[in-house]
Amino acid sequence: MTGQPIISVDGLSVTYRSGSSDVRAVQDIALQIMPGEALGIVGESGSGKSTVGLSLMQLLPRTAQVEGSITVDGVDMTAADRHAARVRGGVIGLVYQDALAALNPFRRVGPQIAEVMTHHLGYDQSKAARESIEALARVGISDAAERYSQYPHQFSGGMRQRAAIAMALAAKPKVLLADEPTTALDVTVQAQIVRLLREMRSAHNMAMIVISHDLHVIRETSDRIAVMYHGRIVETGATRDVLADPQHPYTRDLIRSAPTVESPVISFIPGTPPSPSTSFDGCSFEPRCSVGRGDTKCRTERPRLRVVPCHSASQAACHYPLCEASGRSNPPDTHHQPEGKVA
Amino acid sequence: MTDRTKIQRLLTVEDVSKVYGDTGGKFWAVRHASLAVERGECVAIVGESGSGKTTLARMIMGLVEPSEGNVRFDGEDVAALSRRRQDRQRLAARMQMVFQDPRSSLDPTMRIDNIIAEPLVIFGWSAADIANRVVEVLDLVGLSQDYAQRLPAELSGGQRQRVGIARALSPRPDLLLLDEPVASLDVSMQGQILRLLVDIKEKTNIAVVVIAHDLGVVRAIADRTVVMYSGRIVEHGSTGQVFGEPIHPYTAALYWSASVAGERAMTGDVRRALANEPLPAPQRVTGCVFRTRCWRKIDRCNVEAVRVDRNAGQVAWCNVPLAPPIPLRVSA
């Protein structure tokens, strides 16, 4: 993957003005996505992950104040409002958490997809109709011709998300942006949608950005990962490296926090994520950190995102990355299953 | 089962069904569900949307009256108790519920101590007893006494859920029913609440019923698991057995879908079958409810699903049960 990045974000900060207080949702973020590459952005509520997604599409509310630069397919998004409409849908296809929000409930599903094609690709009505039936079939909807003229309420939740993905792909975008694409779906359907996203990405040779709180989804869909906490990227690198050998204590504890069927161990991070309106002189994770809690440097000096010297594969914003801090770390609270309960 | 163990059972659900609509279009939200919960035990009801798990929970709590069958709490019929105000209060003191979203289930204008005290006021406790109990339960759920004077808006999501649990525990119930207790919480916070539930169960010997869709959560806290699909219980047994050696293909599909190795190991047949649409509601009255999405379906599944008993109380209803060793089994 060489050449120009399809998306380049530099020094991005987004502040929502609400009354007297400023909410700094995103602070000083840099991202580059190469054509065909998949980036996963993971974070909890309030981490700023969705704001990053909205910034790329120029879909932020008017109360948002944006600093820094966002270039999508060579277009400076912060400067040119009139280009945003071409980028939206045309260059970046968007899949939301809730497919019902993407599809108009009063219109038949097929024509909604066809409309994207007539608008962005200039297809005539009959070609757009033919192609959208194809598109429905490609995302795994059986009887696509029949489904074309049905309404969203006649689709199951999983099928609606498939249709929403078909619509996002209709204009042959270079990037698919999926914000919590599986959160509203049932477990067996989630796995199908994750697989579909992977298949569509390779079939269309697209870049992809997947935003999720669910590390499982990120692991299954992305090459690179950016872990966000309190508006900043705290760790980034190859998804496989970061998840197997995290360097930021937050990343490690987040991975441990989700009990899985394979590892049903209860573990958690003490305290609560800080509100976006709180500001810190030092590291915003310090009050909850098992490594740096109470440390003067962590409290007073903000760690910059940098290559971790003892672990060249990923970058972390931490004064005491885990490969250096092995002697300092206290394991987080865990609760192991009583003997004999796990098969 | 001997008579003695039967007497110990706190909650028994006997062949309950709930049907909505009339003869024109009947919808069976739950059909022929049976289960039992004992003191000191945590039972999870797992299912996807539309599986009937919430309706079953409401019948357990006496909020919905079963169309058929009955729910017995400590030997008494819950539906009958729920019809009379006095009996319903007596029942409510022993059976409490925690809701999914602590934001909408706590009155935003009430102080935390008053929220926790409210059930006790209704049950007629004295002011002194109430004050003592509020101190006790705040301590039990790990909230410092400073929180007593605050409002819900001043608390984080995890702290609010602790208040919801404290309120439910205040009248010293014998059974706690939690509907998706961690689904609305951030990942880093979920473990705090799960740990709290395990601790409370150990300290108080309370019976816990958890409704959940997240198998990781279920596996971390539940002694036994009941798997529901389209209104039917398709399998139940100890949590380790149900997920370690599932009998019903749906249970296996749930488990595989939720694990990285399982998802990768699913064959094309399994994947294609699971992508099919669920059985339409009117056809759910006969045969196996999972048949449209099952890769092992045979003709008999259109007509009936036979009961399969394995050792140690693991039960499923399936004509083509999976047998150990389970194909694609994911080692824990």
Can you walk through the features of this model?
The complex is a heterodimer of chains A (343) and B (332). Chain A has helices at residues 49-57, 81-91, 99-102, 109-121, 125-138, 144-148, 157-169, 187-204, 215-221, 239-244, 249-257, 296-300, and strands at residues 7-18, 21-33, 38-42, 64-72, 75-76, 92-95, 175-179, 207-212, 224-229, 232-238, 266-267, 306-308, 311-316, 334-335. Chain A has 343 residues and is an alpha/beta fold. In chain A, strand 12 (306-308) and strand 13 form a beta hairpin. In chain A, helix 4 (109-121) crosses helix 5 (125-138), helix 4 (109-121) runs parallel beside helix 7 (157-169) and helix 7 packs parallel to helix 8. The longest helix of chain A has 18 residues, at 187-204. Chain B is α/β, with parallel strands linked by helices and 332 residues long. Chain B is built from 13 helices and 12 strands. In chain B, the strands form 2 sheets. Chain B has an 8-stranded mixed β-sheet with strand order 6-7-8-3-9-10-12-11, with helices on both faces. In chain B, strands 2-1-4-5 form a 4-stranded antiparallel β-sheet. Classes of the chains: A alpha/beta (343), B alpha/beta (332). Chains A and B meet through helix 7, helix 8, helix 9, helix 11 and strand 11 of A and helix 7, helix 8, helix 9, helix 10 and helix 11 of B.
- Number of helical segments with 4 or more residues of chain A: 12
Number of contiguous helices of chain B:
13
End-to-end span of chain A in angstroms? 44 Å
Structural class of chain B: alpha/beta
Helix percent band of chain A: 25-40%
Low-confidence stretches of chain A: 328-343
Q: Strand order of the main beta sheet of chain B, please?
A: 6-7-8-3-9-10-12-11
> What does the largest sheet of chain A look like?
8 strands, mixed
